[in-house]
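User: ok so my PI wants both of these folded by tonight, can you help

Assistant: No problem, let's get them done. Here's the first:
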Amino acid sequence: MILVIGTGRSGTSTVAKILHEHGISMGNSFAQSDQHDSGYNYEDLECKKLNVMFLRNDMNYMEYLEKLCKYGRKRSAEGKWGVKHPATCYVLGIYLQVFSPIVIRCTRDKEMVVKSCMRCYNFTREKAEKLYDNRTVMLDSALARMEHLEIDFTERVTEDEIWSKISDYLDNGQQRCRQDSDGQTNEAERLRASRR
């Protein structure tokens, strides 16, 4: 499983699109986007719904964990797969435990992200800066000691260059994609037991 994460407005949709075009399924139905040339932002609607429901307290931890594991088993049966949703940074610890994913982190200069959030979402500067800062702290903390690929979008980079970085990273064997649904089930059971 490949997890594409970033602060939002940091290149995650571009990376997800490239992965999807190269045979790594990023989902079965995507949210529409006016901000991306393809018309999609490559956020799987089922994944997005699970994250949003949990973050809004519409489901408890155990229910979220169970549904996330079920989602992972279903997606694993499809072959190589990944997810991308900006709110994943808030539940990153759970994703890292359940899926043991290959992580691709997209970064971009703070001012560029802030201006993009202000333009695309009509955020105030204060709100955009707060979003960037909060998500950056979460990602820095969660990934501090974890091997991951970082792709910086501060400078213009072509899709071919992005794919070259990703394929080199995957080919060099720095991490292996785990598609073992039994491993996901065992991890979920361990997490459930630790919560009792």
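One down. Here's the second:
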Amino acid sequence: MVAGYGAVQWAGPLLSLILTPVITRILTVDDYGASGYLQTVVAAVSTVAMFALPQALATHFNDRPGEARWQGEITGSALVIVVTSGLALGLALAVAAPALGAVAPIIGSHVTLVQFLGLTLCISLAATVLVNAAQDALRVRWGVTLSLTSLAGTAAFNVLFIVVLRLGVTGMLLTPLVVNACVLVVALVLMRGFIARPSRQTVGLLLRSGAMLLPTTLSVWSLTLADRLFLGQWVSEAELGYYDIANKIAGLTYVAMAPIYTAWTPLALAMQHQPLAHIRYVRMSRYLVAAVLAIGLFLGLFAIEILIVLTRPAYFPAAPYVGFLAYMHVFSAFGTVFTVGAMMGKQLRSVSAGVLLGALVNIALNAVLIPRFGLWGATAATIAGFGVTPLVLYGLVQRRYPLPYPVGRMLVALVIQFALLVVGLFVPAIPALQRVAIKLAIFALLPLGLVLIGMVTPAELRQAGAFLSDRARRLIR
């Protein structure tokens, strides 16, 4: 059942991908870019208003194991906080929207929409808290029900608001809001006997924990979304649309790797005291990095072909950015590998330090590069910010909990993959079959290079091939 819950959660990004051809054939590139920018503005306010409560809730949820009254009390206390902060900061956003519109043209064109999103901000925050509480309580049926509600609502309201009513930017922003409202209603019905009265002491506990965790949460937000705020001041809405769709295609790396991350981290922590566990960690680190490099290269090489299938010609200028934006997920894989060591060594501050420094580098480079280089400046800043995080994490963790990761081979593999990606950019605009054949030949050089440097052995490739063949035969049957 837990596996099923994880699969439903993973299906969210996949559903977003499936809906992309529908959305991009209706929305203009300008509308796509404007909606992404406005979502970033709302996400910035939401991140502050949320006050890192999902993490704080998870930290203290089992302080009194098996005591349902405590779990209900801490859930009710978290709800009070997010509703209060959501109403306060949402009202502030609504009041400030006209002034923000004077300096940000995209907001200026949608002031009323931004005000409405501010006034309803607490809905999404409350839904998020209850979904996390259901997960922390290990109520799998609740979790699956809420996830299925979210998936069904996302599909239905995208069709209603964007395809049927043709609401454009408004439809893109209304869809997640209405979906979260549905999730909130379902959660309140499911958990009506679970949520208990809040207490002043518990509210204080959550606020103190949230204050400690908020800098890390804001840093993660900055790494993933802050570039849009800078871009909104320097590039057109169409260019913002190119950047958003390129990020969506690059995000397929996460869609492919998320089930592996979900399974590996708890498994690694469970086996940490077993003999020769470090050998398994090293082997798995090679596999993770090799897999994410292969996925990133594939997406970069075949970006234009993917865009042809998922979008229309107006979005094709996004293609060159896809492979490079995939490096945020490549470096996240490095971070996943090193974070396991940090968690085993109880060095959570090292994780926070890595993320915070990466965010600072990202913000500084966005400010310097975007005015001069536009989308390429944002891409470079994103790569650098995500690259700093695992670098810092590795240096800090290895001092206290050293593991023999094959860092040299990982870096050589990264250089090989980058070189192949750059070569792929120079494939000319020739007939499709010839173009695809050349790109497949370039892609085939990566596994060859990985074998030559020892990232993957021939025996491991044969085992992987046999496994995939067996799975394919079972699916056919």
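The chain has two domains: 1-198, 235-336+406-477. Residues 235-336+406-477 form one domain. Good luck tonight!
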